[in-house]
């Protein structure tokens, strides 16, 4: 049995946010959570999502604080609250306007994916047949995100786009939520090539707990997950590994349809959220992960590194403006 | 002949901004200018205007800086640049969403009118037949602006709305650009009642140089304007008087039509911008105002107060968040 720690971090969640979500974060000892604000939303609905977060920060100020910079992250830690880092899984809200990167940054967005499954104005997602790599606007947006201190998230990107983005960026990037392809084959998962390229530039890989990313889906055991984590740590280095649970709790299945189809297509069959493994039904599963990682041979300080201190260190640096 | 001062302030301009505009500000010795971002624009086009300002701040960083707080205003003064304070003459961009006040504040908006000529969701403008006063949402928005440190501008308001707003606000307000009704009759001008109510609560009146606000239009003399200023100072007190030139330079007449008609009506006759008086053709006219005010009997320190130090002191306090 673990005592909740104050310094653990979840590299991505998209729950149907309520006071319960934030209470679970506290019970799990999460000092920071990267929360997805938008999938297929354009700028205007994204502003509504941001407004909703601003009210949550006021209504639940005893549990959560905005996580915009190192000072915020440390304030959350020292006051026993969870810093919420706002992120976009799709660059749709910037439309084709480089100036909207600054607008979204000023509104608190600190993470943005270049692509979400599909081809975007910036590059290509993993589901297209052909990934033609980073576009001209993609390079401009990377430079702007580098300048502002907005983290580039390569989750859901095509491999060529991801590798070209890593080469183009002056600052480290992250794959906030994915699992390695050596464990579960598929283009949504990350190859060893990408893992090494990411880590070589100081980047982070957040291991996902979403069943479709797990080797045996909902039936995957804690031991199997932690063995995979040990192998991943050998590839990227222990300092470059974290957790990005991809928890989507208390959401109706229509939200899964929205994530997959947005407005660009119509579903051909109903979709359902898979059941979480019993040892990670919500973020309180971090306590089980601590046990599992120790059982898989992780030293105590490495457990802390993977469950929190790596993301803490990484985010604090990532959100600094260039030259600040 | 006057040496340009570093501390003068223009309480409102809406020019067709170019490097020339900013060079004139420097020549005029303006340390701060409140610049209108939107008239009848909704949220989305207002974001485009804000993006355009963000690029101007980068492209002309040797001449202008964003003016968001006291530190910015002092930085502009000490570095010989002009702080640009962004404001809205209409609350349309907040739609009916209280949360958008914070969004616009985070994007740099520091001044907002409750109404622009017409009835709004918050209250009533001066051109409606009947002003039914401040609405329920109007009271909410005032409280939110008070909390954030966003200045409430009562220019273009109906008198009842303006007086009720002053009573509802915990913080001083401004009429950034108008002239007194004792000098030129009309509901766009401010009554002695409103002038006294504004000043009693620590508010500011910015005297307009827009010809339709001047007693004799474009033919108004500098001496007549400065005599009016002396009488206004007697009513509001010397510490509550400033300049808000309402300069709209280098704009096509279509912009005047936009200001008047927006999209809510169609013009019945063509409109034209009136010619500025010869002694205030652009903001370099501040140098003539200094001469004129002295000639009208203003003491040297009172000239400085009206041309700049009053707005400087007022804005520095107005942009502080409540409790900060």
Describe, in plain words, how this protein is organized in 3D.
2 copies of one chain form a homodimer. With 324 residues, chain A is of the alpha/beta class. The first copy, chain A, has one domain: TIM Barrel (Alpha-Beta Barrel), CATH 3.20.20.140. Chain A is built from 11 helices and 9 strands. In chain A, the strands form 2 sheets. In chain A, strands 1, 2, 3, 4, 5 and 6 form a 6-stranded parallel β-sheet that branches. The first copy, chain A, has a 3-stranded parallel β-sheet with strand order 7-8-9. In chain A, helix 8 (222-236) crosses helix 10 and helix 10 (286-295) crosses helix 11 (300-318). The mean pLDDT of chain A is 96. Chains A and B meet through helix 2 and helix 4 of A and helix 2 and helix 4 of B.
The helix/strand order of chain A is EHEHEHEHEHEHEHEHEHHH
The first-to-last residue Cα distance of chain A is: 42 Å
Secondary-structure content class of chain A: alpha/beta
Strand content of chain A: 5-15%
- Please, what is the average pLDDT of chain A? 96
CATH homology group of chain A: Metal-dependent hydrolases
Count the E strands of chain A: 9
SSE layout and pairing:
2 copies of one chain form a homodimer.
Chain A (H helix, E strand, L loop, with lengths): L7 E6 L5 H10 L1 E9 L4 H17 L4 E3 L3 H10 L2 E7 L10 H8 L2 E5 L22 H13 L2 E3 L5 H10 L5 E5 L13 H9 L3 E4 L14 H15 L4 E3 L9 H9 L24 H10 L4 H19 L6
Helix pairs in contact in A: 8-10, 10-11
């Amino acid at each position: 049995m673990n005592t909740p720690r104050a310094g653990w971090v979840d590299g991505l969640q998209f729950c149907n946010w309520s006071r319960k979500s934030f209470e679970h974060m506290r019970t799990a000892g999460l000092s920071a959570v990267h929360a997805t604000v938008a999938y297929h939303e354009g700028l205007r609905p994204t502003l509504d999502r941001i407004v909703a977060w601003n009210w949550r920060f006021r209504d639940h100020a005893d549990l959560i604080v905005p996580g915009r910079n190192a000072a915020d992250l440390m304030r959350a830690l020292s006051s026993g609250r969870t810093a919420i880092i706002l992120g976009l899984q799709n660059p749709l809200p910037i439309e084709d306007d480089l100036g909207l990167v600054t607008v979204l940054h000023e509104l608190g967005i600190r993470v943005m994916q270049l692509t979400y499954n599909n081809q975007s104005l910036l590059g290509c997602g993993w589901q297209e047949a052909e990934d033609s790599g980073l576009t001209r606007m993609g390079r401009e947006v990377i430079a702007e995100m580098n300048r502002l201190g907005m983290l580039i998230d390569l989750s859901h990107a095509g491999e060529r786009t991801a590798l070209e983005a890593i080469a183009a960026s002056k600052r480290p990037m992250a794959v906030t939520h994915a699992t390695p392809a050596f464990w579960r084959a598929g283009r949504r998962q990350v190859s060893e090539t990408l893992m090494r390229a990411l880590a070589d530039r100081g980047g982070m890989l957040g291991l996902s707990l979403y069943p479709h990313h797990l080797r045996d889906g909902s039936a995957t055991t804690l031991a199997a997950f932690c063995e995979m984590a040990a192998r991943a740590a050998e590839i990227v280095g222990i300092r470059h590994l974290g957790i990005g649970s991809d928890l989507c709790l208390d959401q109706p299945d229509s939200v899964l349809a929205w994530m997959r189809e947005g407005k660009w297509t119509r579903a051909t069959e109903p979709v359902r959220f898979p059941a979480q493994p019993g040892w990670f039904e919500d973020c309180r599963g971090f306590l089980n992960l601590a046990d599992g990682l120790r059982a898989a041979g992780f030293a105590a300080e490495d457990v802390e590194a993977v469950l929190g201190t790596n993301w803490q260190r990484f985010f604090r640096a990532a959100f600094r403006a260039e030259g600040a």
